């Protein structure tokens, strides 16, 4: 009961925050609890009977976590998890407050948590995860993480806390080095893509790739084919089909990551067919290939968070998409950050918007993309874009950075926080 006062104060803070700003303030209660009871977060996370699974890395955390949770639940596990918008320390604590009892306990067999690399490294010393899942190392959030070596060091720190298995992407040389440093009794689970998949993605997959031949059928899971939203994976010499929540090889890699993580978490109880069936049934994760109906029209939301995700999403855009709005906001502090992405595949963009509208328009034009209009006022751009007649081919598509995603959803009356279903 020593955490009861902190839990009560956190819930009061949550109520006040939601009253003041509906759909926002999700980190405030966590900040309150972490300040007055710093031991609450690690104690609660370490208390699940079947342990804690941490999913972290530069990209793919949210989708991988959602897929993994679906696979575990399909095996009968009661899983506690956090929304992708709550992956830093305060957000994690806020997510716990939604379900924790006054004694600091949460009903559930296992916890599967997406964790921000930086915050995960800060709190990892007090955690005892049974499984740590590392997705990749990319140039991402350069205002926070200045280079890839810094990110790799943070992931290594989190991986060092694993008590059971560290699951790594064997096509990322940074993660290969982390895996090579793991010693028994902790094991390493590996997954990767085949040469055929790499050949189908000539621009690469965004991370520092090694030779895909590092893995074979005996020591890892393999992604063998991707066609739009359909993929094939090889698990224990058996080929299985997976339906993806959105188009793109990066989503197929997320599915493979989730499968490898599920096997690490379930051990001999892992059923690959059951896991792939569960993953095939999930909906897109908040803003990532999500299709919504607003003002009587269907719109696809495509979130880009770094040059690699920008490139992969451009390359996987549905053929014939003729109505595109690109909005880049204040989260992209240095617009040159996105310039490594070749956006020429977009061909024609109707509106460039967001606080970095002129900057993204310049990049698009340099890449040979026709831009009809530059409109920094995102609300006006959205209203005009949605008022256009239905496209003759494809679906209205909005490609946005995280800041513009939140502003877009707020303007359209949609939930701006994944933890808020309103």
Automatic annotation (TrEMBL):
Family: Belongs to the MurCDEF family. MurT subfamily.
Record-listed E.C. numbers: 6.3.5.13
Keyword set includes Cell wall biogenesis/degradation: yes
One Pfam family named in its UniProt record: MurT_C
Mur ligase central domain span: 55-261
Stated role: The lipid II isoglutaminyl synthase complex catalyzes the formation of alpha-D-isoglutamine in the cell wall lipid II stem peptide. The MurT subunit catalyzes the ATP-dependent amidation of D-glutamate residue of lipid II, converting it to an isoglutamine residue.
InterPro entries: Lipid_II_synth_MurT, Mur-like_cat_sf, Mur_ligase_cen, MurT_C
Enzyme class: ligase
Pathway(s) per entry: Cell wall biogenesis; peptidoglycan biosynthesis
Quaternary data: Forms a heterodimer with GatD.
Molecular function as annotated in GO: acid-amino acid ligase activity; ATP binding; carbon-nitrogen ligase activity on lipid II; metal ion binding
Recorded catalytic activity of this chain's protein: beta-D-GlcNAc-(1->4)-Mur2Ac(oyl-L-Ala-gamma-D-Glu-L-Lys-D-Ala-D-Ala)-di-trans,octa-cis-undecaprenyl diphosphate + L-glutamine + ATP + H2O = beta-D-GlcNAc-(1->4)-Mur2Ac(oyl-L-Ala-D-isoglutaminyl-L-Lys-D-Ala-D-Ala)-di-trans,octa-cis-undecaprenyl diphosphate + L-glutamate + ADP + phosphate + H(+); beta-D-GlcNAc-(1->4)-Mur2Ac(oyl-L-Ala-gamma-D-Glu-L-Lys-D-Ala-D-Ala)-di-trans,octa-cis-undecaprenyl diphosphate + ATP = beta-D-GlcNAc-(1->4)-Mur2Ac(oyl-L-Ala-gamma-D-O-P-Glu-L-Lys-D-Ala-D-Ala)-di-trans,octa-cis-undecaprenyl diphosphate + ADP; beta-D-GlcNAc-(1->4)-Mur2Ac(oyl-L-Ala-gamma-D-O-P-Glu-L-Lys-D-Ala-D-Ala)-di-trans,octa-cis-undecaprenyl diphosphate + NH4(+) = beta-D-GlcNAc-(1->4)-Mur2Ac(oyl-L-Ala-D-isoglutaminyl-L-Lys-D-Ala-D-Ala)-di-trans,octa-cis-undecaprenyl diphosphate + phosphate + H(+)
GO biological process: cell wall organization; peptidoglycan biosynthetic process; regulation of cell shape
Residues of the Lipid II isoglutaminyl synthase (glutamine-hydrolyzing) subunit MurT C-terminal domain: 303-384
Alphabetical UniProt keywords: ATP-binding, Cell shape, Cell wall biogenesis/degradation, Ligase, Metal-binding, Nucleotide-binding, Peptidoglycan synthesis
Protein name as it appears in the record: Lipid II isoglutaminyl synthase (glutamine-hydrolyzing) subunit MurT
Top-level taxon of the source organism: Bacteria
């Amino acid at each position: 009961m020593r955490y009861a006062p902190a839990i009560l104060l956190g819930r009061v803070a949550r109520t006040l925050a939601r009253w003041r700003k509906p759909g926002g303030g999700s980190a405030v209660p966590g900040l309150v609890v972490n300040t007055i009871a710093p031991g609450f977060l690690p104690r609660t996370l370490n208390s699940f009977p079947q342990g804690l699974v941490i999913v972290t890395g530069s990209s793919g955390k949210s989708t991988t976590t959602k897929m993994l949770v679906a696979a575990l639940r399909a095996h009968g596990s009661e899983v506690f998890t956090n929304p992708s918008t709550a992956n830093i320390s305060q957000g994690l604590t806020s997510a716990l407050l939604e379900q924790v009892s006054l004694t600091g306990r949460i009903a559930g067999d296992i916890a599967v948590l997406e964790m921000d690399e930086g915050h995960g490294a800060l709190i990892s010393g007090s955690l005892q995860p049974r499984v740590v899942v590392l997705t990749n190392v990319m140039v991402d959030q350069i205002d926070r993480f200045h280079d890839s070596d810094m990110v790799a060091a943070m992931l290594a720190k989190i991986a060092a806390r694993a008590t059971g298995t560290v699951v790594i992407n064997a096509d990322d040389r940074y993660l290969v080095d982390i895996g090579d440093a793991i010693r028994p009794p902790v094991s390493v689970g590996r997954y990767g893509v085949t040469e055929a998949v790499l050949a189908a993605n000539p621009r690469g997959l965004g991370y520092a790739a090694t030779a895909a031949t590092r893995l074979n059928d005996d020591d890892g899971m393999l992604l063998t084919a991707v066609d739009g939203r359909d993929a094939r994976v090889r698990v224990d010499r058996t080929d299985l089909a997976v339906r993806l929540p959105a188009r793109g090889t990066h989503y197929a890699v997320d599915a493979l990551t989730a499968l490898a993580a599920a096997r690490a978490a379930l051990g001999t109880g892992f059923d690959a067919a059951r896991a792939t069936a569960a993953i095939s049934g999930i909906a897109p994760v908040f803003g990532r290939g999500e299709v919504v109906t607003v003002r009587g029209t269907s719109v696809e939301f495509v979130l880009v968070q770094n040059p690699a995700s920008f490139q992969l999403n451009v390359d996987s855009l549905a053929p014939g998409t003729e109505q595109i709005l690109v909005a880049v906001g204040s989260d992209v502090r240095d617009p040159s950050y996105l310039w490594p992405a070749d956006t020429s595949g977009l061909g024609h963009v109707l509106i460039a918007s967001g606080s970095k509208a002129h900057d993204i328009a310049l990049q698009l034009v340099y890449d040979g993309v026709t831009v009809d209009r530059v409109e920094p006022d995102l609300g006006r751009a959205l209203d005009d874009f949605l008022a256009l007649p239905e496209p003759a081919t494809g679906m209205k598509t909005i490609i946005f950075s995280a800041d513009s995603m939140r502003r877009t959803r707020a303007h359209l009356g949609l939930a701006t926080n994944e933890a808020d279903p309103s």
